[in-house]
Amino acid sequence: MSQWFAKLGVRQKILAVIIVTMVLAVCLSGLAFITYDMRHQQQEMLANISAVAQVTAQRSSAAVAFRDKKRALENLQSFVLVEGVQAACLYSLETNQAIAQWQSSAKIADVQCYKEALAEPVFVTDNEFLLVLPVVSQATTLGYLSVVGSFKPLLKRVKRVALSLLIISVLASLFAFFLTRPLQQKIYLPIVHLGEVARLIGKQSDYTVRAVKTSPDELGDTVDAFNSMLSRLEEDKVALEKLAYFDTLTGLPNRRLFMEKLARAIAHARINKLFFGLVFIDLDNFKWVNDNLGHDRGDWLLKIVADRTRNAVRDMDVVCRLGGDEFTVILLELNDRAQGEALCENILAALQPKIQLGDHSHQAGASLGLAISDGFHETIDGVIKKADLAVYQAKAAGKNTYRVYRAGS
After folding, report:
1. Phi-psi label, residue 31: left if phi above 0, alpha if psi -120 to 50, beta otherwise
2. Which residues are paired to 253 by β-bridges?
3. Of 325, 336, 359, 388, which is the active-site residue?
4. Is residue 407 classed as helix, strand or coil in its secondary structure?
5. What is the distance between the alpha carbons of residues 166 and 36, in angstroms, rounded to a whole number?
6. How many CB atoms lie within 10 A of CB 381?
7. What is the CA radius of gyration of the chain?
8. I need a labelling partner for 294 at 20 to 30 A (CA). Which of 96, 285, 310, 380 fits?
9. Phi, psi torsion values for 250, nearest 5 degrees
């Protein structure tokens, strides 16, 4: 049963709970009502039969005294219209014999006449009862009236009530189904919405998506918790992406993002039929700063170089740090080689002002290598190699200068 219930959808579970609860409520209340009604009807039947029996016993005193069988039988006929009575008998103590016997049907067994009173006037067993009353005249007991009956006629009433309750439970279930449909939607739609949002995030890896809160109840609290979790995941994703794609010291794109940016630059140049340039920057005498002034001064120098380089190029250009003292700049949408050379001169000019590193005033020189390409017949490794060769040419030329790669040079 639990496995079947677990396989149901949320909507079916809600509907099943409502119907089962409704049916159980109707059945339990019906069972209680039937039990109470059955006992009440039994008491009423016994009270009615006892009243008729008392009157019959009083009227039969003369018939018993004079052993008038005809009159005695006529008196017993008063039970004909009394529901539940199956047989009756008048017994005479004087003759120790039954004076008259009556039974409602030939199917009823012979009537057992009682010769003495019971401990209780009425003896009940399961669905049958026995009533024994004394026949008295002038304070003398002349005999006994025995009445045998059954509660089976009441079972018909119980069956009718049970059938009515069954019909009521079916109608109540249908009524509950249609009446609670808006309630079902308010309960299961937010859950379905959460599932859809979760699937969307899993498919697109977009942690900016948020679930909509539709109610201030526990479901609303669940939506708030879900959205809070998404915010944390979004923050963690941004932090991880920053660690994965950006240099922690300078905030510049790292080698991994540089490779992606360079690939896009090559594709962009091919599509738009424009030139692009790649500048390799290698700081001069950076090892001396680390060895003599300390790595903290070296880190400060790298931050200053990163800021000055960013300010020296255009907004569309991409400045990256590959590691150590190696920087690169991807120059996008160049009209010609002269424009790329002008940007290299801007970078060298931006690095000219001295940088104060503690008590030492440092001149941040750099060797630049520029490779320019239209993107056709070009690979990432190929353009990197060209820019790298140009850097060696700049260093060989005395440092603090730039060189442009030329085929065959």
Report:
1. alpha
2. 246
3. 325
4. coil
5. 18
6. 9
7. 53
8. 310
9. -100, -15
Give kind and range of the element (H or E) at residue 277: strand 275-283
Burial profile 290-307: b = 16 or more Cβ within 10 angstroms, e = fewer: beebeeebbebbbebbbe
Run of H or E residues at 41? helix 10-59
Tens digit of each residue's pLDDT, the chain (409 residues): 666 666 666 666 676 777 777 777 777 777 787 778 778 888 888 888 888 888 988 998 888 888 889 998 888 888 888 888 888 899 888 888 888 888 887 555 556 677 776 767 777 777 788 888 898 988 888 989 888 888 887 777 777 877 887 787 778 777 766 776 666 666 667 777 777 777 877 777 776 777 777 777 766 777 778 778 877 877 777 777 777 889 989 999 999 999 999 999 999 999 998 999 999 999 988 888 888 888 899 999 999 999 999 999 999 999 999 988 999 999 999 988 899 999 999 999 999 998 888 888 888 889 999 999 988 888 999 999 999 999 999 999 888 899 999 875 5
- Report the 10 Å Cβ neighbour count for 26: 18
Residue written as tokens 């003759």?
A: 95
Task: Pull the structure tokens for residue 56.
Answer: 């019959």
SS3 state of residue 364? coil
Q: What is the DSSP letter of 353?
A: S
Closest CA to 133 of 194, 78, 91: 91
Task: Report the half-sphere exposure of 94 (CA within 13 A, side-chain side).
Answer: 12
Neighbours of 399 (CB within 10 A): 14
Is 126 part of the annotated catalytic residue set? no
The pTM assigned to this predicted structure is 0.52
Angstrom distance (rounded) from CA 74 to CA 385: 132
Say whether 172 sits in a helix, a strand or coil. helix
Q: How far is the CA of 67 from the CAs of 137, 284, 319, in angstroms?
A: 14, 146, 132
Q: Which two tokens stand for residue 45?
A: 């039947």
